[in-house]
Amino acid sequence: MKDLEKQLGRIEPLHQEAAEQTRQHVDQLTKPLGSLGRLETLAVELAAMTGEAFPVVSPPGIIVFAADHGVATEGVSAYPQEVTAQMLLNLTHGGAGINVFARQIGALQKFVDVGVAVEVDAPGVCKKRIRAASGNILREAAMSREEAKRSIQIGVESAQEIVADGAKVLIVGEVGIGNTTASSAILSALTEADPDEIVGRGTGLTDEGWQRKKAVVREALALHRPDAADPIDVLAKVGGMEIGAMAGAILGAASRRVPVLLDGFIATVAALLAVRLQPTVADYLIAGHRSQEPGHAFVLKTLGKEPLLDLNLRLGEGSGAALAFPIIEASTRMVREMATFASAGVSDR
Ligand SMILES: Cc1cc2ncn([C@H]3O[C@H](COP(=O)(O)O)[C@@H](O)[C@H]3O)c2cc1C
Ligand SMILES: O=C(O)c1cccnc1
Predict the structure, then answer these.
(1) Spacing of C-alpha 26 from chain mean position
(2) In whole angstroms, what is the distance from residue 38 CA to residue 95 CA?
(3) Catalytic residues (predicted)?
(4) Tell me: the pLDDT tens digits for 132-143?
(5) Strand partners, 173
(6) Distance CA 185, CA 193 (A)
């Protein structure tokens, strides 16, 4: 995507010198060699991403993108479409799960409407509406190619804005009734995964609803035949605007050397889209948690990422990533605040 490259610039390779400096420093801290396990590798990864041997990850920035899905009328979600707009309003009032966890970690928060069916009039909503809900993928494309590109562009810009506001790590989240259906279709299209293996119950479908959802994904893929080698085609035909925006935001953060802490199934499918658009973005991703949605384990494996937490969550909104944030913050505090054997006068081996 040429315009995207122009807008992003290059996503820089990892900073090996900073990583090496951190690795050496971690080995001088007052603890048995390697005893802080994954925290140690995380600290080194964060140095490689940011280019700083003593990285800072606070404050994190959380962007929640909201959009509706035409396919929601096909009985693929346990909840009705109007919940998307209602949850967007709830987010601006600070009452959603992600608001609570965002406050807990002192995060900057941004809520972006990229295509909710009914416009929400609230001062906290950033209005970047592409259209009122995507098309029903059982009958038509989710959106045009131009609209898909626009969703990515909005994501890039939103990330650049929150980074300019001071965010040191990016978390992307979403609300959009029906978006686990769209994410499953994207994942199947990009990886040829069998819908039976990756389609889950989303918000809590009954057995019957779950079977219907699998059939919907299968039929939508058979109708549109998205081109796996063309991520924009996949996004346009079976995706969603908030998923495109999340992919764009992930690219936008990485282009500023800002690490991305991934949430659940939907956010991680967006990350896979981003990786297919620009493979180097993979170096800037940390998996926050593993969601209950079966496709999440699959997409994490495809990306080669091991999640920090496994708490049986299935909420989305960025919630699992926000809950994982204190772990990455701990890794940076370890580097910055622990004494070394030399400074503390503790005997080395
Ligand atoms: C009250 C409520 C709050 C939510 N917050 C996130 N989601 C999550 O559930 C939806 C996806 O699941 P499905 O594909 O089954 O519709 C998305 O809105 C997602 O963000 C919610 C869902 C509900 C009902
Ligand atoms: O894993 C997720 O992100 C998820 C799962 C179910 C419903 N909403 C989000």
Answers:
(1) 29
(2) 33
(3) 317
(4) 999 999 999 999
(5) 64
(6) 9
Q: Is the peptide bond before 80 cis (omega within 30 degrees of 0)?
A: no
Q: Centre a 10 Å sphere on the Cβ of residue 257 and count the other Cβ atoms it contains.
A: 18
Question: What is the distance between the alpha carbons of residues 321 and 12, in angstroms, rounded to a whole number?
Answer: 24
Give the SS3 label for residue 63: strand
CA pair distance 126, 122, nearest whole angstrom: 9
ipTM of the complex: 0.99
> Does the pLDDT at position 6 exceed 80?
no
Indicate if the pLDDT at residue 9 is higher than 90. Answer: no
Report pLDDT digits (tens) over 77-87.
Answer: 999 999 999 99
Please identify, by atom number, the ligand 2 atom nearest to the C-alpha of residue 263: 3
How far, in Å, CA of 313 to CA of 298, rounded? Answer: 16
Q: What is the mean pLDDT of the chain?
A: 97
- Residue 178 to residue 202: CA distance in whole angstroms: 8
Atom of ligand 1 nearest to the CA of 202: 15
* Residue 314 near ligand 2, beta carbon < 6 Å: yes
pLDDT in tens, 296-337: 999 999 999 999 999 999 999 999 999 999 999 999 999 999
Alpha-carbon distance of 235 to 233, in angstroms, equals 6
Residue 316: what pLDDT? 98
Alpha carbon of 86 to ligand 1 centroid (Å): 11
40 part of the active site: no
Question: How far apart are the C-alpha atoms of 48 and 61, rounded to whole Å?
Answer: 20
CA 243 centroid distance within chain: 9
What is the C-alpha radius of gyration for the chain, rounded to an integer number of angstroms? 20
